[in-house]
Every structure is written in structure tokens, then in C-alpha cells.
Design brief:
about 350 residues, mainly beta, Neuraminidase, five-stranded antiparallel β-sheet, four-stranded antiparallel β-sheet, 27 strands, about 40% strand, globular
Length: about 350
């Protein structure tokens, strides 16, 4: 009789546990469905106070709460670009550089007083930017269809502009590895018209490349139609690549200068709607979470491909960067503006 009662208790507990789990799943699904992806009307000039915590920093999973600074809010630092891309933090100069692609210029925001100025005119319709481990700026250009490095004396070194005799398409995003190599994506987006570069025909397939310190260039993969954002995991054991055309983020294991075992990491949608979205630029924090510029804001994904947070912006966020003296300030390049917010984590890499 006792064994029968024990079995009944076990079955009852299992049923209760299953019901609780199903309820939690339903609750999470209902919460996701109730999220409005569009922020409430707001005075982005900074002249009107915003209630803390910022209502446009949205928790999709309780694990995201620890990354929120409750007594800060999203700020708009600048507006006036045509299409903002490629933010990169310079720790020595304490400034952020980013691209205004259609205006063929790079902009700079200075931390000491917040002033914004044109940093580089006639920038080759640059898109992505970063800084190498020697502090030199590296940019990828739609107009020049090349990857360049700006040297200390102001001269420009071409890192890559051809592959097997054909001109590159329109290099889009770029990152540096501690071994000195430069990794970049090369989709055709910048040569499809005359707005973000010059209209032209593709001479090579869209691909992802690596250039080592000696100048040796290798193809990482050409399996994507629209390789876009690229970044390393916090431990440099993986590389993430956003395929905008395929509407997915892919992940590869790093094996020296090779990327192996490519697979789908995550597919993003617009929170609250289920409508398709796609990552553009991405960066990783010290916990390994992936912060993705993805319509209409920033989406945060764990190393296990679980979406836990969402930052709503009034414009489409293309690219992001961690910066500030503690690397705990998230900068977001979105359409015509540059936004920022403090977070309770740090960027894992230098730019």
C-alpha cells in the first residue's frame, strides 16, 4: 500500500511540475506577445526627464536584469546623419568614431565635453571601423571597395581590395584578433546603387576573409549571400557572422586561422510581433552575451542562443560598440542618430 501511495505522490508531483513548467512557458510567450517594439513618444533632446528605470530597456528573461543600470537612461548624443554605421571606441583619445555612409564622412564624438565633429571627410563611403592592438584605425570602404588602415603619420595602407584577380564587393564590417589578423565581411550591399557607394557589378562572391600580419589573405567562408556583422566570442574560440540575407546569425569554431563547423546560431524576430528581423553589427560582452543591432533596436542573446533583452530605439539600429573608460557604455548607431546607455557589463574586446 505504501508503494502505491509513493507512486501516486511521485506522479502527482510530476504532473504539478509539468503544469508549472507549461504555465511558465505560457507566461513567457504571453509576455513576449505583449511587448510593444515601438518606444513611447519621447523628447530625445534630453530636456525632458525620463523615469528610471528606462522603460525602453526591456527584460525578456530575468537573466537580463543584472545587466540593467536602474538609474540611467538611453541618451541621444547626435542626430543629423543619413545612415549611421560602424561605431568604434578609441580608448587613448577617449572618443567614438562612426560612419555616415551616404555623406561620405566619418564622425567623432568626444567624451570630455560631448562635442561632435566631422572626423574624416571623403572617407571612401566607409562602413565598419575598429582599432587594432597598436591603436591604428581600420576602416572598410564601400566606395573604394577595400579595407584600409590609417597610419600614425596620416598615410593610408590598403589591407585588401582584391580576391583572386577580382575587386572586392563592398567590405562591410571588420574586427581584429589578438594574433594581429584582420577579419572582414564583403557583401554586395554597397555597390547595389549610388547612395552608399558606386553602383557596380560583383566580381567575386560575397564572402568573409582573414588577412594576417604578413598580408596573407584567406577566405573564411563564402556560404552566405549577405555576410554583414562579424565579432569574436569573449574567449576568441568562436566567431559570429550575421547573414542579413539569410536572416540568421551563424557561429563557427576557431581553429587557428580557420573557421570550422559553421552552423545556425540564432534567428531573430521583432519582439512582440514575430515579424522577421536580422542582425547587422554585433559585439560581445565579458559574459559572452551577443549584443546585436537588429531592427528596430538592440537584442541581447546568451551564448546558448537565448534572447534575454531588448533595447527599444525610435530608429533602426545598424551597429553597436562598447566604450567609455570602463567599456560599460553601449553606443548605438541608428539611422540618423547616435545613442548611448550605460550597462552593467563590459565589452569583451577593444573596439
Amino acid at each position: 500500500m505504501a508503494s502505491v501511495l509513493n507512486r501516486r505522490k511521485f506522479i502527482g508531483a510530476a504532473v504539478a511540475s509539468g503544469a508549472a513548467l507549461a504555465s511558465a512557458v505560457r507566461s513567457e510567450a504571453q509576455q513576449a506577445q505583449s511587448i510593444n517594439p515601438v518606444p513611447a513618444p519621447r523628447d530625445w533632446s534630453g530636456n525632458t526627464a525620463v523615469q528610471y528605470p528606462d522603460p525602453d530597456i526591456v527584460v525578456l528573461d530575468e537573466r537580463f536584469r543584472k545587466y540593467i543600470v536602474n538609474n540611467t537612461s538611453i541618451k541621444r548624443l547626435y542626430t543629423g546623419t543619413l545612415w549611421a554605421e560602424g561605431p568604434a571606441w578609441n580608448g587613448v583619445g577617449r572618443y567614438l568614431v562612426w560612419s555616415d555612409i551616404p555623406n561620405n564622412r566619418q564622425m567623432r564624438w568626444a567624451e570630455e565635453d560631448g562635442h561632435v565633429s566631422v572626423f574624416r571627410d571623403n572617407s571612401g563611403y566607409s562602413n565598419g571601423n575598429t582599432f587594432d592592438y597598436e591603436g591604428r584605425q581600420i576602416s572598410v570602404e564601400h566606395g573604394g571597395r577595400r579595407v584600409v588602415r590609417y597610419e600614425y603619420d596620416g598615410s593610408v595602407t590598403v589591407i585588401a581590395d582584391h580576391w583572386h584577380g577580382g575587386r572586392l564587393n563592398s567590405p562591410n564590417d571588420v574586427v581584429v584578433h589578438p594574433d594581429g589578423s584582420i577579419w572582414f565581411t564583403d557583401p554586395p550591399f554597397g555597390i547595389r546603387g549610388n547612395y552608399e557607394g558606386f553602383k557596380a557589378e560583383s566580381e567575386v562572391k560575397p564572402a568573409v576573409y582573414r588577412v594576417d600580419k604578413s598580408g596573407q589573405m584567406d577566405m573564411i567562408t563564402d556560404e552566405m549571400s549577405g555576410p554583414n556583422g562579424v565579432c569574436f566570442s569573449n574567449d576568441y574560440k568562436k566567431v559570429y557572422i550575421a547573414d542579413t540575407v539569410g536572416r540568421e546569425i551563424r557561429v563557427y569554431d576557431l581553429d587557428g586561422k580557420k573557421a570550422r563547423n559553421g552552423k545556425r546560431f540564432v534567428v531573430l524576430d521583432i519582439p512582440g510581433t514575430g515579424a522577421p528581423s536580422a542582425a547587422d553589427g554585433m559585439r560581445v560582452d565579458t559574459d559572452g552575451n551577443l549584443w546585436c543591432g537588429a531592427r528596430p533596436g538592440v537584442q541581447i542573446v546568451t551564448p546558448n542562443a537565448e534572447r534575454i533583452g531588448f533595447i527599444r530605439l525610435p530608429e533602426t539600429c545598424a551597429n553597436i560598440s562598447f566604450g567609455g573608460q570602463k567599456r560599460n557604455r553601449l553606443f548605438m548607431a541608428a539611422s540618423s542618430s547616435l545613442y548611448t546607455v550605460y550597462v552593467e557589463t563590459q565589452g569583451a574586446h577593444i573596439a
